Amino acid sequence: MQLASLCFSLFLAGWNDATTGPLLPRIQNVYNIGFVIVSLIFVFACLASPGFISGAFLNFAISDKLGFGKVIVIASSCMMVACCLEAAAPPFPAFVLGYAVNGIGMALQHAQANGFVASFRDHAAEKMGMLHAAYGAGALTAPLVATRFAQMDRWSFHYLVSLGIAVGNTIILIIVFGLKSQDECLAQIGQAPQEQGTSQRSKFRQIFGLKAVHLLAFFNLVYVGVEVTIGGWIVTYIINVRGGGPSAGYVSAGFFGGLMIGRVALLWVNKMVGERRVLFIYAIGAIGLEFIVWFVPSLIGDAAAKGSLVGMLLGPIYPIVMNQSSKILPRWLLTGSIGWIAGFGQAGSAILPFITGALASKVGIENLQPLLVAMMSFMTGLWWLVPTSSRQAE
């Protein structure tokens, strides 16, 4: 029941991330804005107060004081407030403010959900894969709905659907976790409390003293940035560069559908090859497919390669990062560390899409592919630097 409720939370997260792409051309038309200005949607979700970065720091401040149950309900409530703002289609500054409020909710929810599942003692890898497959399911569903709303006069009413999901998520979290601490919730399923460290330093200083935390956080930032850039800008790319029509939004659904399938169907490959090694295979395969999209001008080919195969290869990477974190980092710092890795990583969902928008305004959206190839290559290099051995002693 606990895992199912957290999966629904990640379904909502995936829904939110995949909503923007199909609506982006309509938002540009409604507000009469260019690539750079519309990209502020991504920036404010991350950098504006509160946003993802603020949410990642806030997670440290309130997790120990309020506990898991209260924090994750606060996160879902922030997302409800954001949907109310966005559904009204207010002037663009207020519309962007909704993305900022949503940013803090997403950061807190990612931190709490990933930290909780990583703390499971049994079958943590499989459960992490299921958790993020639920994210893929939400991201698959959202473009199917958003593409229809993008063609309607009341396009912003899509956010009322998002509001309904957020309300349901909040109710489920209250019922299942009862605003209790993480240890209390784990005790309900027969798992002993997490071990405690002996250091006299604060958890904040201990976590930030770990080199692996920073490497994993920056890796996650690039990965999330690549994922959201593809989901957010592929529709505009297909329409402007490949001549796609109003139904191009379904390509985004295909990408996130591949993401969902990859996180479940490739679990056996992860076990057989080893998570650390297989990540290199997935990344190099995705880079190869991006070269095909870059140099082979075909609407159907691009939709197939980008819409499903790239998503399938990128899909397992996020759960692998979380699973490897639980093996590398001290268990008494695991929840806080993963909270920072997940929260900081979400900043990539603002930085790379904004860079894409800025470049598109200068040189055209056709430069999406070289940017993605560069970012994926950089991400692969960062993974090589992540330590392989346990750092429990630190």
TrEMBL record:
Keyword Membrane on entry: yes
Domain Major facilitator superfamily (MFS) profile: 2-392
UniProt main location, coarse: membrane
Gene3D superfamilies referenced in this protein's UniProt entry, alphabetically: MFS general substrate transporter like domains
Membrane-crossing residue ranges in chain numbering: 34-59, 71-89, 95-117, 129-150, 156-179, 212-235, 247-266, 278-297, 333-356, 368-386
Signal peptide: 1-18
Highest taxon, organism lineage: Eukaryota
Subcellular localization: Endomembrane system
Gene Ontology molecular functions: transmembrane transporter activity
Membrane topology term: Multi-pass membrane protein
Record keywords: Membrane, Signal, Transmembrane, Transmembrane helix, Transport
One Pfam family of this chain: MFS_1
GO cellular component: endomembrane system; membrane
Family listed: Belongs to the major facilitator superfamily.
Name of protein: Major facilitator superfamily (MFS) profile domain-containing protein
Organism from which the protein derives: Piloderma croceum (strain F 1598)
